[in-house]
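User: Can you recover a sequence for this backbone? Please restate the input before giving your answer.

Assistant: Of course. Working from this structure:
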């Protein structure tokens, strides 16, 4: 296991702290005032949002053991810059996970707006479209993307830490919902009863 993999994983876990802080809108505004509290929250949101994907990317591409699926090894594509080999079957698995993940992620952003997605702050509860299937479509998309990229790069350790990635996403979702209940009271509680958190409702 390479030092870059370990650093990326540790940073991904530590990144939970600014993520949590970015969600505490009311507490920040009480402590620093309305405008300054909002600005500090936005800084935390930018750091944690970009950090989440940068550290995940570091996990995917860092030197580590590679796994081979037991068929179609002869069809491969070499990426000399990253010293990676992409196998056709892994590429097909990646495409499946990535397309589904991208669907949930993009639809989620389209319905909340990019600013809400980046700042981790909304003025209203979205209860239509993809939000009738799952409460956190963007986070579900991130999990599926992680699995997809782990297959794409045949990244064994990346695939093995999928439960950790799911746990991190669950913690972020839990914290976000705690703050949404505080801000929107019973309205979000009612929404929670109807729509699952991360496993889509068929």
């Amino acid at each position: 296991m390479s030092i870059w993999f370990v650093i990326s994983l540790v940073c991904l876990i530590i990144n939970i702290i600014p993520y949590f802080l970015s969600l505490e809108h009311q507490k920040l505004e009480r402590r620093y005032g309305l405008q300054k509290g909002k600005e500090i929250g936005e800084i935390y949101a930018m750091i944690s949002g970009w950090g989440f994907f940068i550290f995940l990317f570091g996990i995917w591409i860092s030197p580590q053991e590679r796994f081979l699926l037991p068929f179609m090894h002869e069809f491969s594509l070499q990426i000399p810059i990253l010293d990676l080999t992409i196998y056709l079957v892994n590429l097909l698995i990646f495409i499946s996970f990535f397309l589904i993940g991208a669907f949930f992620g993009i639809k989620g952003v389209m319905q909340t707006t990019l600013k809400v997605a980046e700042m981790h702050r909304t003025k209203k509860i979205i209860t239509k479209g993809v939000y009738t299937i799952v409460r956190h479509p963007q986070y579900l998309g991130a999990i599926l993307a992680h699995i997809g990229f782990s297959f794409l790069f045949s990244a064994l350790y990346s695939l093995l830490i999928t439960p950790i990635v799911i746990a991190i996403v669950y913690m972020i979702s839990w914290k976000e919902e705690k703050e949404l209940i505080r801000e929107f009271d019973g309205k979000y509680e009612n929404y929670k009863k109807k729509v699952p958190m991360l496993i889509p409702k068929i």
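That completes the design. The chain has one domain: 3-194.
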